[in-house]
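assembly run, all chains below
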Amino acid sequence: SYVLTQPPSVSVAPGKTARITCGGNNIGSKSVHWYQQKPGQAPVLVVYDDSDRPSGIPERFSGSNSGNTATLTISRVEAGDEADYYCQVWDSSSDHRVFGGGTKLTVL
Amino acid sequence: EVQLVESGGGLIQPGGSLRLSCAASGFTVSSNYMSWVRQAPGKGLEWVSIIYSGGSTYYADSVKGRFTISRDNSKNTLYLQMNSLRAEDTAVYYCARDLTNGGALGYWGQGTLVTVSS
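ok done. output:
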């Protein structure tokens, strides 16, 4: 089965840029989606199809995907961005949705 | 406005059965790809199952043969029948709808907690 690998944690100072990676075999050939989850809340889609944003998501959230790594970039980080972030793809070979293990973003 | 409301969670003994419901409003369940995703306490997200608009269903290996996803078009409701429950099935279960039937889960319910314990 397809495996997505994320760093367990990323720390960033307010106002700086956070980058969260998601590794997978030839992930650049797949569409990658990113979710934000705050404690006690359901996940929220923040980036889909590698780099598109759903309505209501700030432009500070952006994504890229190439080769074996996809990246979620959060610019001008705010305290309210502190959350767990998950990447996800659709593994067409098995028709399974696959999530990465999640990355805890800490705003210093 | 799209809304998803899960129900049916609770405490169940190992080996028991439970049926989760996800009542949808603001859209038609049968026209969309609908998934169940779970999250064990303190753990990450785990995809469980999907039902496509055409009716095809798929399951994670961890639940295949024990769980069944279905929908009632007249009630615009999604279900997850869970049999032979194990302690490792303890989790918050979310129903979710694809944003555009393209793989991204754009709409989520608030979740329902299932606890499997004796």
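The CA atoms of residues 34 and 87 of chain A lie 5 Å apart.

The two ends of chain A are 36 Å apart (CA to CA).

not gonna interpret more than that til we talk
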